[in-house]
TrEMBL record:
It comes from Albugo laibachii Nc14. This is Protoporphyrinogen oxidase. Catalyzes the 6-electron oxidation of protoporphyrinogen-IX to form protoporphyrin-IX. Its EC number is 1.3.3.4. It catalyses: protoporphyrinogen IX + 3 O2 = protoporphyrin IX + 3 H2O2. Pfam families: Amino_oxidase. Keywords: FAD, Flavoprotein, Heme biosynthesis, Oxidoreductase, Porphyrin biosynthesis. The lineage of its organism: Eukaryota, Sar, Stramenopiles, Oomycota, Peronosporomycetes. Its main location: mitochondrion. GO terms for cellular component: mitochondrial inner membrane. Its cofactor is FAD.
Length: 515
């Protein structure tokens, strides 16, 4: 029997456990899928050396599951998210849609309303400007002239040939390919909304690798976007080789997806499925403090030291360890036995986000929309505001025309927000929506929370850091793997996609003819 330990009970750890037990339960089914997808792969006949059973233990340091996913409904009926409020179903998001279908959550799912999807704003010189969705809006847009100039510049800019190790900042890349206006007024707020970071430090290779690929393959981003659409047939299969269902194909074009009762719906469904399975057990209030490889009867195993809520010390053994916790939390676990890996992990930096929820018992917005983003040039502590009640109105309390807003501030631009008290964060949010949106009414509900070190920063050089960390992990053991949002994307869909990749690799390594 394979004894698998997963560090972390967030969406990465939960989805990894779900995929592992699903693949191993039906080996022939998934082996045939993979053979059709990759005819030359090693997913062949099950050998006597292959494990037919696994036991999965999820080790979670807190008393709850979900990680940064945290939904709350107030006594007054306001539903707010303390973490991600949805996910983008395109690209890697198709795996989340498939997961939703497997868990039977289709009827609970919500998509962003058309009005919100087509109405996004950017703060420009302290004025709210709608991002154009048609030619007439574009002509009247204050940034139209700069964008047209940028498109001409991009079409004729010569590509720079890069090696696999070359990197540059998002700001340098966009300025080189387009111009500084596009970098400062369009890409900067978008990147802040995703990463909470500074585009003069964030890596284009790690944050937006598709842009690097287009420049290298087609010589131009615009040319790459056009030619790739013409040359590529629509994606029809998922990672495991299964055909995309009608449900997945239908919703993968949506702007953003959530659930009637919030994003924790997905966590609850995964928890219920895993608790009902024979393969999985969940250890709450158990913090991993040390990991090392030990040998017993000529077999290498992992030995993990855990600290429980009562500060008791517990030792567990495992054949495989998957860490989905932040790099900064892995570092102290491997510090004693593998100090060089700990040093590499400590190079990963993080951004903290102040999240302030505002609830009004009336409709106070002058126009519907998804929300607005704030470029760094505006010199505001606020990164952006999401109009939750417009984006997902089915989450509103039915008895009122309530308005729900989420204000995000801080990030890498303003690390000083980490030292602010809750009332100070609340005042920043109330002042911002008053100035930017003309909301004079006082909110009926206000709540501020600091999400400390919630987003890893993929700075220039992160590509090399990632390779170094993965090399150290492989040197410890090929059965020590890293998931989560550390390297492969910070979004919920990225995390689920990475977990499915790891589960498939486990399946192929242990159920293949060459195992």
């Amino acid at each position: 029997m394979r004894e698998i330990v997963i560090l972390g009970g967030g969406i990465s750890g939960l989805s990894l456990a779900y995929y592992l037990k699903s693949f191993v339960r039906s080996p022939s089914h998934f082996r045939n899928r993979l053979r059709n997808l990759h005819p030359s792969s090693s997913a062949g006949a099950l050998t006597s050396q292959n494990p037919r059973k696994i036991r999965i233990r999820i080790v979670e340091a807190s008393p709850r599951l979900g990680g940064w996913i945290h939904t709350e409904t107030t006594p007054s009926g306001y539903l707010f998210e303390f973490g991600p409020r949805g996910f983008r179903p395109s690209r890697s998001g198709s795996e989340v849609l498939n997961l939703i279908e497997q868990l039977g959550l289709q009827d609970e799912m919500l998509t962003v309303t058309p009005a919100a999807a087509t109405s996004r704003y950017i703060l420009h010189n302290q004025r709210m400007e709608k991002v154009p969705t048609n030619l007439w809006e574009f002509i009247r847009w204050p940034l139209a002239r700069q964008v047209v100039a940028a498109l001409f510049n991009e079409a004729f800019a010569k590509p720079i040939q890069l090696t696999d190790d070359d990197d540059e900042s998002i700001h340098d890349f966009i300025t080189r390919r387009f111009n500084a206006s596009v970098a400062d007024w369009l890409i900067d707020p978008m990147a802040s909304g995703i990463f909470g970071g500074d585009i003069r430090k964030l890596s284009i290779r790690c944050c937006f690798p598709i842009l690097i690929q287009m420049e290298q393959q087609y010589g131009s981003i615009i040319r790459g976007m056009l030619l790739s659409k013409l040359s590529q047939s629509p994606k029809k299969t998922l990672l495991d080789g299964s055909e995309m269902s009608e449900f997945v194909r239908r919703y993968e074009r949506a702007v953003s997806i959530s659930f009637r009762s919030g994003m924790y719906t997905l966590v609850d469904a995964l928890r219920k499925d895993l608790e009902e399975s024979q393969e999985c057990e969940i250890h709450f209030d158990s913090k991993a403090t040390k990991l090392e490889v030990v040998h017993q009867d000529n077999l290498a195993q992992f030995q993990l030291e855990l600290e429980t809520e009562e500060k008791a010390r517990q030792i567990i053994r495992a054949t495989d360890v998957y860490s989905t916790i932040p790099a900064k939390h892995i570092a102290p676990i491997v510090q004693n036995s593998y100090p060089e890996m700990a040093k590499a992990l400590q190079r990963v930096q993080y951004a903290s986000i102040g999240m302030i929820h505002l609830g009004y018992e009336a409709s106070v917005l002058h126009s519907d929309g998804f929300g607005y983003l704030v470029p760094s040039l505006e010199d505001e502590k606020v990164l952006g505001v999401v109009y939750d009640s417009c984006a997902f109105p089915d989450q509103n309390a039915s008895r009122t025309k309530q308005t729900r807003l989420t204000v995000m501030c801080g990030g890498a631009r303003h690390p000083e927000i980490q030292s602010l008290l809750r009332p100070e964060l609340e005042n920043i949010a109330i002042s911002a929506v008053a100035r930017h949106l003309g909301i004079s009414a006082q909110p009926n509900h206000v709540n501020a929370v600091l999400l400390e070190d919630c987003i890893p920063q993929y700075h220039v050089g992160m590509w090399q850091t990632r390779k170094s960390i993965e090399a150290h992990a492989a040197a410890i053991s090929s059965r020590f793997r890293l998931g989560g949002n550390n390297f492969c994307g910070v979004g919920l869909a990225d995390c689920v996609h990475r977990s499915k990749q790891l589960a498939l690799e486990f399946f192929q390594d242990n159920f293949g003819s060459s195992a």
